[in-house]
Amino acid sequence: xxxxxxxxxxxxxxxxxxxxxxxxxxxxxxxxxxxxxxQVRNGLVQGFSFAVGASILVSTIIWLIKPLKGIEALxxxxxxxSQDLQRRGR
Length: 90
Prior knowledge:
The protein is mostly helical and 90 residues long. Helix content is 86%, strand content 0%. The chain has a domain at 50-90. α2 (36-65) runs antiparallel to α3.
């Protein structure tokens, strides 16, 4: 019984120490996140990443559907879709 209580105490101390370390880490992260320069930088990076990703996606879609123009039944729809995507990409 005493052995069980000792294990429980050790476990509780270890858990309390882990919680304390997590609280310190969270406090550091919150202080870092409040910095306006960091927020501006993160916003710029996110916006640039979105623009580049969207451009790559649209160009990949256009590249993939171009060979489908060879199918006569799909040609008008593919040409229209391709033109729409190219117009929106500009």
